[in-house]
Amino acid sequence: MFDLSFLEPERKTLKIKRSGDTILETAIANNFPLYHLCGGNARCTTCRVFVSDGLAFLSERNEREKTIADRKGWPKEIRLSCQTEIFGNVDVQRIIRDEEDLKNITSETKNSKTGEECYATILFLDIKGFTSFTESSLAYDVVFVLNRFFQEMSDPILNNGGFIDKFIGDGILAYFFLDKTKLQTSQLTLEDAKRQMFVQALRACFRMFDQLQKFNAYVKERFHHEFEIRLGLHAGQVIYGDIGHSDHKSQTVLGDTVNVASRLEALNKKTGTKFLISDEIYQFVSDKIQIDKKILTKLRGKTERMAVYSVLGFKEKDQILELQRSLELAVQLNPNLARDFYIHFLDTKPEFQKFFQNTDMESQAKKLLAMFGKTIEKFGNLNQNHIELQNLGKMHEEMGIQVTDFAKIAPSLLYALEKSLGDRWSAELKSIWETALGSLVRLMGKK
C-alpha cells in the first residue's frame, strides 16, 4: 500500500490502510499528532498541510475544501487534511506543530493571505527634506502635513491599479502585481501583461510628481516649506502574505525584488536623480520612456553590477495621463467649468431641464466636478472603476434618464473643456477626450 510521509524535519512515514483514506484519518490511525480542532469536519483550518511531493496522488478539492481554500487564497499545495484523500505516495509538512503555531493560525481572518508567490512591480518613495521640516515645526503640523502628503501620493498608485503595502516613516512601499487568474482569462500574452503593468506603475509615478507640485504650493503657502520625492521601481518575483504578531498582522511583500527597489530609491541621493528604474522594467518599456541617463552600479548585497535608468517621462503622450493633466489644468484655468457645462447642456438640450427644476445648480456643479475629477483620475484602473460607473448609470436611470441619453452629455463636456483650455485645446486632445467619454458612456450603460 502507499506511504504518507511527514517531514518534521525528520521524516516520519505512516502506512495508509486503504486507498482513498484521508490524510487526517491516516494520521489518527497511526497516533500521529495532527491538529483538527473541529473534529475533521472542514469547519476550521488547523489540520491543513503543505504538500511537498505527490500532489498528483491526492483527490481534487471537494466543495467544502474549495470554499475554504478560495476564501483564504491558498495555493494548490496547501490542503485540508480532513478532506484530502490519498491514492499514492505523498510527502507533506504540518503547518501547525505546537501551541504557538496554533495561536498564529487561529488569528487569521477570511481575508488573510497565507503566503503566495507572484510577479510584481515594487515602488519605493521617500521624501527629501522632511527631517528639516520636522525639526522646525510643531508635532501637530508634522502629522497633519505628512497625512496630507500620503493622501496626495497614494491616490495615483491606487488609481492606476496599485496597492499600498505600508507607510514607512515618511516613505511609501507600494506594488503592482500580475493577477494570474485575470491573465488566464484575458487575451494578453505574459509579455504584454508585464508591459501593461509597467506602464501603469510609470504613469502612477509621473502623476505623483504632478501631485507634488500642488502639494508644494499648499505647503509653501501655509508652512513656507517645499519637498522633493525620490522614487525607485523594480520588478520580479515576490512573496506575499500576512506577516506579524498573531494579533497584529498586515499583508506585505517580501523578497530580493523589494530590497532592490528600496536600494534604487536610496541610490537617487548618490546619483543626483529623482526616479530610477531597473533594467528588468526598462527592457519592456524602452520605446515608451525618456531617460536622462543610464547608470551602471553595484547595489549593496549584490555581486554583479546592474544597469539602472533615470526616467524623465513618456516619449509620446500617454492618453490617460493627458486626460488627467488636461482636466486638472482646465479646472485651474476655469473654476466654473462645471457651471459652463450645465449652461451649455440645458441650453442645447432643453428637454432635460425638467430633471433639474428643484436643484441648486451651484451645488450640483460642484458635485459634478468632484465626481468627474475622481472618474478621470481612476481611468488608469477601469477594472475597478467600472462598478462605480455602472452604479452611476443606474442612479441616472432611476431619475428617468435613459441609457440612450448618456451620450448626449459629451458635446457639452467637450465644449466646457475647450472653453476652459483655450489655445491649449487641440484636435489630438479632443480625440482623446471623445474616446474617453465614449468609454465612460458604455460603462455607465452596461448591465
- Count of beta strands: 13
Fraction of residues in β-strands: 15-25%
Major sheet characteristics = 8 strands, mixed
- Which word captures the global form? globular
Through-space gap between termini: 55 Å
Topology as H/E string?
Answer: EEHEHEEHEHHEEHHEEHEHEEHHHHHH
Let me know the average pLDDT: 87
- The percent range for helix content is 40-55%
Protein name: 2Fe-2S iron-sulfur cluster-binding protein
Domain Globin: 311-447
InterPro entries: 2Fe-2S_ferredoxin-like_sf, 2Fe-2S_ferredoxin-type, A/G_cyclase, Adenylyl/Guanylyl_Cyclase_3/4, Beta-grasp_dom_sf, Globin, Globin-like_sf, Globin/Proto
Pfam family, one: Guanylate_cyc
What does this structure look like?
The structure is a single chain. Strands 6, 7, 8, 9, 10, 11, 12 and 13 form an eight-stranded mixed β-sheet that branches. Strands 2-1-5-3-4 form a five-stranded mixed β-sheet, with helices on one face. A hairpin with a 2-residue loop joins strand 7 (163-168) and strand 8. The protein is globular, with a radius of gyration of 27 Å. The longest helix is centred in the middle third of the chain and has 34 residues, at 190-223. Helix 10 (319-333) crosses helix 14. With 447 residues, the protein is of the alpha+beta class. Helix content is 46%, strand content 22%. It is built from 15 helices and 13 strands. Mean pLDDT is 87; it is low at 106-112. The protein has helices at residues 23-29, 63-72, 99-106, 130-135, 139-159, 180-185, 190-223, 256-271, 279-285, 319-333, 337-348, 361-377, 382-398, 410-421, 427-445; strands at 3-7, 11-15, 48-53, 78-80, 90-94, 116-128, 163-168, 171-177, 228-245, 248-254, 275-278, 289-297, 306-314.
